[in-house]
Amino acid sequence: MSTLAVLLTLLGLGLVGWLAGRGRALHFAAAGRSRPHSRPGQHGWYVALWAMLPALIFLAVWASIAPGLTTETALDSPAASALPAPGMERNAILAETRALANGTLAAAFHPEADALLPAYRAAQIRYGIAGALLAIVIAFAGGAFAYTRLAPDFRARTRIERLVMAVLLLASLIAILTTAGIVASLLFESLRFFSSVSPLEFLFGLNWSPQTAIRADQVGSSGAFGAVPLFWGTIFIGAIIAMIVAIPLGLMSAIYLTQYARPATRKWMKPLLEMLAGVPTVVYGYFAALTVAPALRNFAASVGIPGASSESALAAGLVMGVMIIPFVSSMADDSIAAVPQSMRDGSLALGATSSETIRQVIVPAALPGVVGGVLLAVSRAIGETMIVVMAAGLAANLTLNPFASVTTVTTQIVQLLTGDQEFDSPKTLAAFALGLVLFLVTLALNIVALRVVKKYREAYE
Amino acid sequence: MNSPTDWKSEAMRARIRRRYAAERRFRLVGLGAVLLSAAFLAFLLLTMAANGWRGFTRTEIRLPVDFPHSTLILDPATIQGFGAEAALAGADIAGVTTKAADAAWPAIGGARLLSDGAWLNVRAAIRHDPAILNGRAAIYVPAATDIDLAAKGDGSPEAERAYAALKKEGAVRTAFSIAFLTGADATDPTVAGIWGAFKGSLLTMLVTLLLAFPIGVLSALYLEEYAPRNRWTDLIEVSINNLAAVPSIIFGLLGLAVFLNMMNLPRSAPIVGGLTLALMTMPVIVIAGRNAIKSVPPSIRDAALGIGASRVQVVFHHVLPLALPGILTGTIIGMARALGETAPLLMIGMRAFIATPPGGVADPATVLPVQIFLWSDEVSRGFVEKTSAAIIVLLAFLLLMNGLAIFLRNRFETRW
Known about the structure:
The complex is a heterodimer.
Chain A: H1 2-31, H2 40-76, H3 88-102, H4 111-149, H5 156-194, H6 199-204, E1 208-209, E2 224-225, H7 228-260, H8 263-278, H9 281-303, H10 313-337, H11 341-349, H12 354-383, H13 386-391, H14 409-417, H15 426-459
Helix pairs in contact in A: 1-2, 1-4, 2-4, 2-5, 3-4, 5-15, 7-10, 7-12, 8-10, 9-10, 10-12, 11-12, 12-15, 14-15
Chain B: H1 10-52, E1 57-66, H2 84-90, H3 93-104, H4 118-128, E2 136-142, H5 145-151, H6 157-169, E3 172-176, H7 178-182, H8 195-226, H9 231-243, H10 248-262, H11 270-294, H12 298-306, H13 311-339, H14 343-347, H15 368-376, H16 382-412
Antiparallel strand pairs in B: 1-2, 1-3
Helix pairs in contact in B: 1-16, 3-4, 5-6, 8-11, 8-13, 8-15, 10-11, 11-13, 12-13, 13-16, 15-16
C-alpha cells in the first residue's frame, strides 16, 4: 500500500509542478514584452515531467536493489549469528524469511527464519521509508530545477516533443525485441536439446517416443526423438486434408461472391463467412472431438476400413479446413478484384460465357495471388494447435490412412510441456526444438507468400 | 473456308446449349460452396446451442429437513449480524443435509440423489431465514449429476428410476442455474460455474489491453508519421508483419521461457497470460492502426503544419483523433482474438484446476477458453452440457465485441 501512496504523492507533485509551471508561463505571457516560445501548458508539462520521471526511475531502481540491501542489514543483526554457513540451507532460510515478510508464506519450516523475521521486517520498513523519502526529494529537486529554467524564450515544447519521439521509438522497438526474444529463447533451448540429441536424428529419425524414464535402468529410458512422424502428421492434417476442404470451398465462394452474387447478397454473405474465422479454435476442437470424430469413426467402421480411430486425422483436418475457408476466400477475393476489368471485358466481348471467362481468364490471371493466399492458409493451418490437441491423437504414426490417428508438431509441444517433468529434461527441451522448426517453416511460408502476392500486384499496377 | 458461320445450325445450337449448361453448373457449384460453408457455421452453432442450453439449467430436489429433530445444534438467535458466518461455519450442515436425504428417500439412493454442494443451499436458506430452524422446512437443493442427466433424458436406468420416483412425489423442478454463472470450477458438474474463468479472462484481457493498446498505437504513429526510411525501420516493419503471422503457440513458448523461467513471474497468473497475449495482439493493433492513420488525408496534416503546429502537435491534435475510430475497431478485433486464444495460455500453466475466482492479476487463474478445454476433457457426462454452455457464453461475448467494432466503424469512421 505504501508504494501506492508514494506513487500518488508523486502524481500530486506532478500536478503541483504543472500548475506552477503553467502559472509562471502565464505570467510571462501577461508581462508580454516578447512573445514566449512555448504555450503555458507546455511549460507546465515540462515541470511536471521533471518532477515525476526521475523520481519514478529512481523508484524502479530502488525496488530492484532494496531486497538485497534489506537482506544485508538483516544479516548484520544479532539474530543472524544463528544462521548456518553460506550454502543451500542458508539461502532456503533467507528465502523463507522473505516470503514470511511479504505475507506469501503463513508459517516457516525453519525456526531460524522466524527468529530473523523481526530484524528483516524492521530493515524492510526502514528501507521502504528511505526510498519513499528519497523519491520525494528527487521529485522536488527535479521540479525545482525545471521551474528555475522557465523563461519567456525557453523552448519547453521542443524538449517535451523530444521525449515524445523517444517514447514513440521505444514503443516501436518492442516489436523487434519480441522477435528477438522468440528467436533467442527458441534457439537457446533448442541448442541445449541438440547437445543431447543429434539434429540429424531429430530431423530424419522415424521413431518418436519422448517418454524418458525416471530411473536409468528402465526399458526405453533414452527416449527416441525422430520427428518425421510429427512432420508427416502436421502436413497430412494441415496441408493436405484441410486444404482439400478449404481450397475448393474458399475459391468457389470467392468466385461466386465476386462474380455472380448481387451486391446486396454479398454484403451480408461475406461477413457471415468471415465469422468462420472468428470462432475460437477451442470451439472447433470441441466440435471436432465431440461431433465429427465419432461420426467419422462409425462411418469407417460401418464400411469396414481397418484402423479407424476416434482421433482420426480426417476429423481434425476437416474441421481445420472449415476454419481456413475464410482465409482462402478473402485472399482469393482480393486477387480476383485486382484483375483488370479490361481483361474480363475483352473475354466477354469475344463471346465467352461468364464461367468461361472466370476459368480461362480471371482465375489464371489471379493465380499467383490465390497461391499466395493458399500458402498463408497452410502456414496458419500447421501452426494451429487447439483443434489437433483436442481431436487428433498422440500416437506418432507414419500412415496414409486418413481414418487412423496421427499426431502433429503442435500437439506434441503441448503434450511435452504440460506434464510435471523437470524443465531441463530432453523431453521438455524437445518442445522448443519443435517450436523452432514450426517457427522457421511458418516464417518461410509467409515470406514466400507475401513475395508472390506482392510481385503479382505489381504486375497489374 | 470463307462461308459465314451458320449460327442456326444444329451443331452450333447444341454447342451453345452445352456451354450454357456448363455456365449454369458452374454457377450452382459456386452457390453450393457458399451455402456449404454457411451450413458448416450453422451446424456448428446449432450443435453448441442444442447441447448448451441445458447447461444453464439444473434439476433441483425439494428436500424436507426436520431441524428440531436433527443433529444440528444451532440457535436461530446466533445467526444475526456479524457472528452469523462463524455460527454457520461451526455447524455440521452437510451432515444434516445427508441425513435428511437418507431419511426422505431411503429406497432410491438417499444422499446420493443430491449434489455435493447441496448443503450450501441449506446453509443459504438458514442464513436467509433463521426461523426455519424452529420447524420442518422444505428446501430446494441441486440434484446429483446422475439425476440431472436423467431429468434431461440421458441417465442410467437406476437414475431414471429414482428420477421417476421423485417426479411422482412432485419433489423435482428444473431451475435456472445461478451457480453456473456465479461459481468457479468444481469437480462436480452440478456446482461448477464459469465465473472464476470469466474473471480470469477479464483480468488477462485488462493486462493485455493496458499493454498492447498504448504500445501498438504509439508504434503505429511512429512508423506511419515519423520513421525515416532506413534499415532499422524496415526491420521493425518486417518484425511486426511476421509477428502477426507467427503461430500463437510460439508466443506461449516465449512466455514460458522468458516470463516464467527467466523473470520468475508467478505461474498461471493473469499477468503472465496478459503479457503473452499482449505481445500477440500488439502487431494486430499496429497493422490496423497504420491503415487507419494512412487513411487520414494529407491535406489535414498540411493545413495544421501551415498554421504553425509542430509535427508532434499535428499528429496528436489532428491525425490521432481522426484515426482513433479505425484504431479502436482494430483493437477490439485483436482483443476478440486474444479472448478466444487457448494454446499460449496452456504453455504458461493456466490449465490448473482453480476452485476460487482470482483476486488479482498475480493469483492463479484460468480463462474461459482454457476452462472449455479442461471441461471437454472431463470424464463425467454432466460436463458435456457445461462445456457447450461455456462455449455459448464465450461466443456471445465475441459476437458482442465484434458487433461493437462494426458499430464503431459505421458510426464514427469518416470516408474521405
